[in-house]
Structures are given as structure tokens and as C-alpha cells.
Amino acid sequence: MPKVSKKLKEANQKVDKTKQYSINDAIKLAKETSTTKFDSTIDIAFNLNVDPRHADQQIRGALVLPGGTGKTQKILVLTKTKVKEATEAKADFVGGEELIQKIQKENWFGFDVVVATPEIMAELGKIGKLLGTKGLMPNPKTGTVTTDVVNAINEIKKGKIEYRTDKEGNVHSIIGKVSFTEDNLLKNYNAILEIIKKAKPAAVKGTYIKNVSISTTMGPGIKVLVEN
């Protein structure tokens, strides 16, 4: 059993595991209980009353966090027709078949997000499994399969995140960094909460959002009070 550090023990003692905190108090507590020397990410987890085995209960999409993410993401654009636009929009890597082959043959993953134009999707299928296992496969639902590569690149740079339900009906995302102001963290929280609420499937009856918690990297989980 891994040894719990003194800092983490102290952080755990500050959190009442039986209590649901208001989001304002939860954000303050997350900042207080961050135990890392680096600027930790604040994660959020939604436990939803959905059955992802049914297509109409699979929740997936993307949004631009109003307060940003605090992360710099390397963007790969795969295209035959929008090379100039993607290059001028300052994507980190731009290309077509040659970059698909580089991923396939060299197992190259020097990027964080993939944007693709529709005409190259058939060729992208060759590495679909490779990208899929890393959560990098472009998808129209998240705006990463598009002819408007400039807008896609700009949104990612502004703080675009993707979200989707896992097999247990949970959605994991981020709301920012510990160094963010409480106001920006609250804006980001409200933005993702609103979009999750709007995505409620018609088939779901009763309580939709069962639990919400936030935590910092290596920090304790803090339950958040949410009204359905």
C-alpha cells in the first residue's frame, strides 16, 4: 500500500468526506489542499444517471472554457485543402498523408489535439485505432473535423476542452489551474455544468447528476452540492 505523505494527510483532514460543499467553498478548499510544488490542474468529475450502452445516452461534446485552461496544447492539422490557412493560424504541425504515415510507422505523438478536414478522414482511418486509444481521433461532434480549421485552432488556443461519458456514466474534465482566480474557476465550472445539464437525455428519469466532485492533482476529492 503506497505511503501517504504528510502534506496529503493534512489536506485530507481539511476535507469532510460526508459533506457536499458549495462550489465557492469547494474551490477555496481545492486551492488550500493542493499539495504539489507545481501549478496543479483542478479536475472535475460528474457521476451521471445515464446508461452509455444506449446511443441516445452517450454524452459527448466540446466547449471553450471562458477562463481558459492554463494549458498550452500542440495542435496537429491533417488536411489536403487547408494547409495555408492552418499554417497561418499557427498550428504546430500541418500536413497530410506524410504525417499520417509518420504516426503509423514511427508511433509519433508529439501533439495534444488533432484537427482534420473532411476530405482526409478516409485516409485517417488507417490510424483510427492508434488515435482512438489515446483519445485523439477527430470527431465532428467536438468540432475537430471541420473545413473551418482557423476557427478550430483559435478555439483550442483559447481553452477548448472535450468531454464524454465513460463506460460507468462519468464525465471527467478540468476547470483550470490552482493559480487561477476563484472567479475564473467559477466561470469555468458554471460553463461546463450548464452544458452537462443541457445534454440531459430525454430517456433519463429522476436525478440526472448524481454526484459532482473536484480535486487537484494528487489532492483529495471534494464533493460539490449541485441542484438538478
Account of the 3D structure:
- Part of the 50S ribosomal subunit.
- Keywords: Repressor, Ribonucleoprotein, Ribosomal protein, RNA-binding, rRNA-binding, Translation regulation, tRNA-binding.
- It holds the Pfam family Ribosomal_L1.
- The chain is of the alpha/beta class and 228 residues long.
- The chain has two domains: 17-69 and 160-223, Ribulose 1,5 Bisphosphate Carboxylase/Oxygenase (2-Layer Sandwich); 75-158, Ribosomal protein L1/L10, domain II (Rossmann fold).
- It has eight helices and nine strands.
- The strands form three sheets. Strands 7-1-8-9 form a four-stranded antiparallel β-sheet, with helices on one face. A three-stranded parallel β-sheet has the order 4-3-5, with helices on both faces. A two-stranded antiparallel ribbon has the order 2-6.
- The longest helix has 17 residues, at 182-198.
- It is globular.
Helical fraction equals: 25-40%
Q: With helices defined by DSSP (H or I, 4 residues minimum), what is the helix count?
A: 8
Distance between the termini: 38 Å
CATH homologous superfamily descriptor of the largest domain: Ribosomal protein L1/L10, rRNA-binding domain
Helix-strand makeup class: alpha/beta
- As a percent range, the share of strand residues is 15-25%
- SSE arrangement, N to C: HHEEEHEHEHHHEEHEE
What is the architecture of the largest domain at the second tier of CATH?
2-Layer Sandwich
Mean pLDDT: 93
Number of strands: 9
Rg calculated over all Cα atoms: 19 Å
Molecular shape: globular
Tell me the strand order in the biggest sheet.
Answer: 7-1-8-9
- Count of domains: 2
CATH topology of the largest domain: Ribulose 1,5 Bisphosphate Carboxylase/Oxygenase
Top-tier CATH class of the largest domain: Alpha Beta
- Ranges where pLDDT stays below 50 over 5 or more residues in a row are none
Largest sheet: 4 strands, antiparallel
